[in-house]
Structures are given as C-alpha cells and as structure tokens.
C-alpha cells in the first residue's frame, strides 16, 4: 500500500510541478545546456528575447523549458517575467539576491557570478532602489561616445604585459 502511495505522489508531482514554472526570457544569447555545467553538451542556441519557463534553480544555473526542450542556462542570461514586461522592484531585487556560485567545468571549480565585497548579511538586507538604478543607468555611454571622449582627451591605447600572480 505504501508503495502505491509513494508512486501516486511521484506521478502527481511530475504532472503538477510544471504548473508552478515561472516565465522568463533570455537577455543575452545563450546555449541551452544538457546539464548545469559550462562544459555540458549544448541542446540548442537561445536568442535574446526568447521565452523560457523557469523550472528550478541549481547554483548559478536555471533549469528551463525552451524551444520544446528542457535544459540549463546560466541565471545571468535570464530575466524573470515576459520580455515585454518592465522589470519590477520585486523581480530585480530577487535576481540580485539569487546570485550564487556554481560549478564551472569538470574540475568542480566554484566561481562567483557577480557579487563581490559584500557580506552575506549585507546581501540579505539589500533592498531594490529604482532611483539608484536610474542613476546607474544614467552613466551609460555608447561605444561611439566613448571613442569620441578618448579622441578628445587624446587618450592612447597601451598594451600591458601580463602581471604574474603573487607566489604563496
């Protein structure tokens, strides 16, 4: 009897779980990977704007359903919500707080996905600020603007030699 109950629960979860998938969209071109690792096999290439259904998260990866297939995409390449939706303070702040480490290859190397210099407590206390985001975005310049500035200020590109890592 217990086996039948467990089997029924497993089947129910298999059919109900997709109902709780969260919509999202690709913000930068990315491959849909077979497993949540950078060196996993690519299933299909996803383009910016493609819709996905976010199923679950594992480290810095999101399991998604896209292009008729299920696979994994780095969470930095996805924004929650539909492509036409303007980000809200809730989903933007959650995106920042969701940043995490993840395996990046076969060597079990762990790498940060974007937050440095903040403690765990500071990250937990973080709040979204639309005015600060607007201020940040006001500093954005195009490649042409940057090139004009460099030319006007007579900035010259210089090649630097590799700086060896300090020995420990």
Give the helix/strand layout.
Elements: H1 2-16, E1 22-26, E2 30-33, E3 42-46, E4 51-58, E5 61-66, E6 69-74, E7 78-80, H2 89-97, E8 102-103, E9 110-111, H3 120-125, H4 130-138, H5 143-152
Antiparallel strand pairs: 1-4, 1-7, 2-3, 4-5, 5-6, 8-9
Q: Estimate percent helicity.
A: 25-40%
Structural class: alpha+beta
Number of helices: 5
Overall residue-averaged pLDDT value: 76
CATH topology term: SH3 type barrels
What is the rounded Rg? 21 Å
The main pleated sheet reads as: 5 strands, antiparallel
Q: Please name the CATH architecture.
A: Roll
The top-level CATH class is: Mainly Beta
Residue share in β-strands:
15-25%
Topology as a string of helices (H) and strands (E) = HEEEEEEEHEEHHH
- In total, the number of domains comes to 1
In short:
By secondary structure, the protein is an alpha+beta fold.
Please, could you describe this protein's structure?
With 168 residues, this protein is of the alpha+beta class. It has a single domain, classed as Roll (SH3 type barrels). The protein contains five helices and nine strands, in the order αβββββββαββααα. The chain has a five-stranded antiparallel beta sheet with strand order 6-5-4-1-7. It has a two-stranded antiparallel sheet with strand order 2-3. Strand 4 (51-58) and strand 5 form a beta hairpin. The longest helix has 15 residues, at 2-16. The radius of gyration is 21 Å and the shape is elongated. The model is unreliable at 93-111 (pLDDT under 50).
């Amino acid at each position: 009897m217990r086996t039948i109950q467990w089997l029924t629960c497993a089947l129910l979860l298999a059919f109900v779980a997709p109902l709780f998938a969260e919509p999202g969209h690709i913000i930068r071109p990315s491959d849909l990977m077979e497993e949540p690792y950078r060196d996993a096999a690519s299933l299909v290439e996803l383009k910016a704007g493609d819709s996905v259904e976010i199923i679950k998260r594992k480290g810095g990866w999101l399991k998604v359903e896209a292009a008729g297939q299920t696979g994994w995409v780095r969470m930095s390449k996805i924004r929650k919500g539909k492509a036409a939706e303007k980000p809200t303070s809730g989903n933007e702040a959650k995106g920042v707080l969701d940043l995490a480490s993840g395996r990046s290859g076969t060597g079990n190397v762990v790498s940060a996905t974007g937050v440095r210099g903040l403690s765990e407590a500071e990250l937990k206390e973080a709040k979204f600020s639309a005015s600060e985001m607007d201020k940040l975005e006001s500093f954005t310049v195009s490649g042409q603007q940057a090139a004009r500035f460099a030319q006007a200020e007579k900035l010259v590109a210089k090649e630097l030699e590799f700086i060896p890592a300090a020995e420990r």
